[in-house]
Amino acid sequence: MNKQIIECVPNISEGRDINKINIIANIVKTVEGVKLLDIDPGKATNRTVITFVGEPKNVIEAAFRLIKKASELIDMSKQTGEHPRFGATDVCPLVPIANISMEETAKFAHQLGKRVGEELGISGYFYENAATSDERKNLATIRSGEYEGLKEKLSKSTWKPDFGPTEFNQQIISSGVTAISARDFLIAYNVNLNSTSARRANAIAFDNRENGRAKLVDGKKVLDKDGNPERIPGKLKAVKGIGWFIDEYGIAQISYNLTNITITSMHKAFYETCISAMERGLRVTGSELVGLVPLQAMLDAADFYLKKQERSLGISESEKIKIAIKSLGLDDLKPFNPQERIIEYVMNADADKKLIDFTVKDFAEETASESMAPGGGSIAAYVGTLGVSLGTMVANLSAHKAGWDAKWEYFSDWAEKGQQYKNDLLFLVDEDTNAFNKIIDGFRMPKTNDEEIKVRQQTIEDATKYATEIPFKVMETAYNSIEVMLEMMKNGLQNSLSDGGVGVLCAKTAVTGAYFNVRINAKDIKDRTFAKEILTKSEDIYQKTIRLEHEMMEIINKNI
Question: Which residues are marked as active site?
Answer without folding.
Answer: 83, 432
